[in-house]
Design goal:
By secondary structure, this protein is α/β, with parallel strands linked by helices. It folds into two domains: 10-129, no CATH class; 134-256, no CATH class. Helix content is 49%, strand content 10%. It is built from nine helices and four strands. Strands 1-2-4-3 form a four-stranded mixed sheet. Helix 4 packs across helix 5. Bound molecules: zinc ion (ZN). Residues 123, 127, 143, 146 line the site of zinc ion (ZN). Zinc ion (ZN) binds at residues 123, 127, 143, 146.
């Protein structure tokens, strides 16, 4: 019997250049609760188990650690694809927190493109390996770091928008883009330092941002970021207006 044709395996080049060091990959396992679900088929047809999952683990570890940093002792990650609400979440196993489970909604994966599935996997893998100030870290920062890694891995979701409404710790891409601003302003490795600052002791915002961002307070940095976005937007609007004016002028000349 001929093999069932599979969709062309597209690679996402943006996810590759981050890899510098080869970290030891924990055992990666998968549990498919419903093999006849379209979400299962979509996952199996588009995600290459022997490459993609390891690539994302390496991306996460390279962005959050250097080869000699202390890392959590995660020994295995089990992907559980099942019928559930929402998108995905990560949890430690009941008896041993070094064994993680990533639960993924089959309904969500049913008709998502490859990059969105990889993006969700990348985000959840961050939760398997990031520090969290012994469980006391601000949830917005935890989720922000996860989406920052996803952004840096070249897997930002299509609907993501950079904005500075509300507080810095709104979480997800809202905080992820802010962390990207800090990474650019204070230099490569800034977010890695923030993660490493969350290794021991209770979460102390002043200490974390002070030691990773040249003594600044996070609220001041957020204000700076807001100004930065305003300027960036004005610059883009000016450029757009100038190019429209130029196009109109060219058309005028053409008509004459
Ligand atoms: Zn998350």
């Amino acid at each position: 019997m001929p093999a069932i044709p599979r969709p062309e395996h597209e690679t996402s080049p943006a996810t590759l250049p981050i890899r510098k060091h080869r970290f030891e990959t924990p055992k990666l396992r998968v549990h498919l609760e419903d093999i006849s679900h379209e979400g299962t088929s979509n996952f199996l047809s588009n995600i290459k188990g022997n490459e993609d999952l390891d690539t994302q683990v390496q991306n996460v570890l390279n962005l959050l650690y250097t080869p000699d940093s202390h890392r959590p002792g995660t020994r295995s990650v089990t992907f559980i694809l099942r019928d559930m609400g929402g998108v995905a979440y990560t949890t430690g196993m009941y008896l041993d927190d070094d064994h993680k489970e990533i639960h993924i909604s089959l309904a969500y994966f049913k008709n998502k493109p490859r990059d969105e599935m990889l993006g969700v996997i990348c985000h959840e893998l961050v939760h398997c390996f990031q520090w969290n100030a012994e469980g006391t870290c601000n949830g917005g920062l935890i989720e922000g770091i996860a989406d920052w890694v996803r952004l840096r891995a070249g897997l930002a979701a299509k609907h993501w928008k950079q904005e500075a409404d509300g507080d810095w710790d709104g979480g997800y891409q809202h905080t992820g883009f802010f962390l990207e601003y800090l990474e650019n302003r204070f230099g490569p490795g800034t977010v890695r330092k923030i993660n490493i600052c969350l290794r021991k002791g209770k979460y102390d915002e002043k200490d974390v941002f002070g030691s990773c961002c040249e003594g600044h307070k996070v609220d001041e940095l957020w204000e700076d970021y807001r100004e930065h976005l305003k300027k960036k937007k004005k610059h883009e609007d000016d450029e757009k207006a100038a190019s429209e004016a130029k196009a109109a002028q060219d058309e005028d000349e053409h008509e004459r």
